[in-house]
């Protein structure tokens, strides 16, 4: 496609946080990239929404346009980089680029977690590459390792801290004793959280990333709507300090497991042991923990967002495709050749941490134990904190189905002897039953 041309030509849609980083890396590291590829890579045109918006990087005026179709339709463009985000019109632009025989790189988790199958199939049919490393974990290489370096393994689980905003908030709550609102305000002040933080704090961003990770790890398509998502807005300083008392840290975990009866995919606040490598991931950092039958346990750690980290992943994809253009190679396309069922959340089994408040009087514990027994929930450990007329019961269960724990909570809430169920947090503790 680029035969006779001096460079592999990139056309970009979007020049915001990630797009400006792509321009910067391709410009600042042009010489080493050219040596590594064997040819220059040049950005020719960039589509933006508003020409008068300030740019984080210097871009010659004549390079910019507000018409994405001018970029996609340019016959010199070999690779279209979509870094505008959202589902439409990004989906239409990518399909259009593919239909014109362009390779595509995007960073778009929303789109790939909902329309990934359609886009990958279109690329396959047209014989072009579609890469999206930056969509999960920002600068952390994880999709390419799953598809290539770890392809000899059976992967049975992927656990990730894949949202920097929520990890920052939970770290501040844990280390400074802040409540959720105070920690969120701090994250917003520092630019780690959006003015409307709901996409992050309600677990939706992590859910989109998990759908992509699970599809790749288990070779079976998982879409965003399959993922159970619960955010961190109800986590309290009490939860964090009781967790600590029991030797746990609370993280918003994205959990994917390939189990005999189906795939479970869920994002929720999770108590993990202090000794777990993910417990040490602080502030806005991300990490993805993978278990493979041959390799054992691996953790990929780094910056999950930000202009240059995310652009690093985009440029890596551009370089892989540029090499393919020169050698006639192709990237590994869609690897979802199984159709494994995705488990309903009510059928997922795990351990639970619970806090509830009861009047401090005789006979109460027996009544409560009855509700647990009726629902086949067995208790692993209990701590009781007396506060005069009220007692606070903090307990951890053995592994049980989610459906049973929900019935237990309903049963407890219906008891006159329970003032309130204050918390219910899932526990991920490998090695414990
Ligand atoms: N930010 C991160 O750290 C990060 C990390 C990993 C992945 N991502 C993903 O990367 C993508 C881009 O994110 P971002 O943070 O860079 O977003 P952003 O800062 O909001 O930039 C979006 C860019 O797209 C342009 N744009 C929007 N609609 C357009 C249209 N219809 N036609 C042409 N251009 C259009 C905007 O133009 P104007 O500048 O004129 O408004 C802007 O330059 C998203 O999919 C996001 O999920 C982001």
Structural class: alpha/beta
Radius of gyration, taken over Cα atoms and rounded to an integer in Å:
24 Å
Mean pLDDT level: 96
CATH fold-type name of the largest domain: Dihydrodipicolinate Reductase, domain 2
Domains (count): 3
Helical fraction equals 25-40%
Bound molecule kinds, no repeats: NADP nicotinamide-adenine-dinucleotide phosphate
List how many beta strands DSSP finds: 17
Q: What is the beta-strand fraction?
A: 25-35%
What is the global morphology?
elongated
Query: Looking at this structure, what is the CATH superfamily of the largest domain?
Result: Dihydrodipicolinate Reductase, domain 2
Count of discrete alpha- or pi-helical segments spanning 4 or more residues? 14
The end-to-end distance, rounded to whole angstroms, is 57 Å
Largest sheet, strands/sense/barrel: 11 strands, mixed
Question: What are the segments in which pLDDT stays under 50 over at least 5 consecutive residues?
Answer: none
Describe the fold and architecture:
This protein has helices at 17-28, 30-37, 68-72, 90-99, 109-126, 143-149, 164-176, 180-189, 198-201, 204-218, 237-245, 307-327, 364-374, 402-413; strands at residues 7-13, 40-47, 64-65, 79-82, 103-106, 130-131, 155-161, 228-229, 248-259, 262-273, 285-292, 296-303, 349-359, 379-386, 390-397, 400-401, 420-427. By secondary structure, it is α/β, with parallel strands linked by helices. It is built from 14 helices and 17 strands. Helix 1 packs across helix 12 (307-327), helix 7 (164-176) packs across helix 8 (180-189) and helix 13 packs antiparallel against helix 14. The strands form two sheets. Strands 7, 8, 9, 10, 11, 12, 13, 14, 15, 16 and 17 form an eleven-stranded mixed sheet that branches. The protein has a six-stranded parallel sheet with strand order 3-2-1-4-5-6, sandwiched between helices. The structure holds NADP nicotinamide-adenine-dinucleotide phosphate. The site of NADP nicotinamide-adenine-dinucleotide phosphate (NAP) has 25 residues, from helix 1.
């Amino acid at each position: 496609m680029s035969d006779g041309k001096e460079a592999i030509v990139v056309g970009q849609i979007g020049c915001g946080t990630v797009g400006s980083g792509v321009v910067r890396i391709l410009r600042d590291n042009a010489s080493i990239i050219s040596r590594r590829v064997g040819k220059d890579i040049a950005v020719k045109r960039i589509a933006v929404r508003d020409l008068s918006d300030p740019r984080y990087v210097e871009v010659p005026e004549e390079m910019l346009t507000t018409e994405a179709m001018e970029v996609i339709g340019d016959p010199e463009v070999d690779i279209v980089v979509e870094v505008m985000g959202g589902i439409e019109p990004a989906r239409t632009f990518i399909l259009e680029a593919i239909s014109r025989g362009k390779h595509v790189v995007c960073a778009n988790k929303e789109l790939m977690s909902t329309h990934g199958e359609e886009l990958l199939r279109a690329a396959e049919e047209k014989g072009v590459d579609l890469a999206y490393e930056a969509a999960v974990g920002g600068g952390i290489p994880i999709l390419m390792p799953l598809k290539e370096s770890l392809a000899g393994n059976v992967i049975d689980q992927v656990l990730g801290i894949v949202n920097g905003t929520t990890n920052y908030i939970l770290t501040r709550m844990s280390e400074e004793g802040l409540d959720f609102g105070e920690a969120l305000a701090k994250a917003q002040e520092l630019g780690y959280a959006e003015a409307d933080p709901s996409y992050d704090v309600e677990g939706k961003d992590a859910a989109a990333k998990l759908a992509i990770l699970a599809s790749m790890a288990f070779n079976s398509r998982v879409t965003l709507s399959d993922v159970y998502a619960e955010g961190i807005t109800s986590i309290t300083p009490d939860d964090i300090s009781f967790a600590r008392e029991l030797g746990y840290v609370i993280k918003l975990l994205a959990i994917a497991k390939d189990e005999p009866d189906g795939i479970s995919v869920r994002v929720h606040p999770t108590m993990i042991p202090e000794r777990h490598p993910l417990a040490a991931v602080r502030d806005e950092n991300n990490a993805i923990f993978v278990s493979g039958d041959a390799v054992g346990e691996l953790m990929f750690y780094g910056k999950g967002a930000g202009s240059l980290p995310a652009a690093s992943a985009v440029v890596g994809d551009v370089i892989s495709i540029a090499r393919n253009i020169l050698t006639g190679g192709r990237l590994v396309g869609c690897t979802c050749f199984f159709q494994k069922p995705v488990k309903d959340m009510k059928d997922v089994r795990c351990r639970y941490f619970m806090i509830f408040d009861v009047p401090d009087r005789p006979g109460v514990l027996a009544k409560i134990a009855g509700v647990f027994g009726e629902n086949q929930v067995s208790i692993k450990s209990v701590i009781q904190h007396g506060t005069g007329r009220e007692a606070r019961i903090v307990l951890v269960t053995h592994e049980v189905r989610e459906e049973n724990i929900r019935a237990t909570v309903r049963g407890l809430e219906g008891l006159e002897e329970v003032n309130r169920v204050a918390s219910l947090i899932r526990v991920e503790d490998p090695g414990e039953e």
